[in-house]
Amino acid sequence: MRRVLPLDLWPPRILALAVVGLLAFIAMDALEEGGTWVGRLIALAIHMTPTWILLILIALAWKREWLGAIAFTLLATGYAVRAWPHVGWILWISGSLLGAAALYALAWPAR
User: Fold this and answer.
1) Which residue in 19, 24, 52, 55 has its CB near the most CB atoms, within 10 A?
2) What pLDDT was estimated at residue 3?
């Protein structure tokens, strides 16, 4: 059996966490919406939902790379379908998700 190297396991996790950072940064736009500070916090919580979902997914895929590969591919496809008119958004978000899915798929046989 092949020994598992850190270079096999860390790139998908790092890219997935970078995608989480990107989505969290984009979610900060909710703070500029009008209304009270309570309304802004509620809007931020709603905009942060995809970030929390990805964090849970990363935790579940930590020892199961196959799960990360499948889930990130499904999320990328679903986002691309949902955001179809916005090609720039699709390139940034779905492209990043597909990159993480590819890295998870490459790390899967290493385990």
Assistant:
1) 19
2) 64
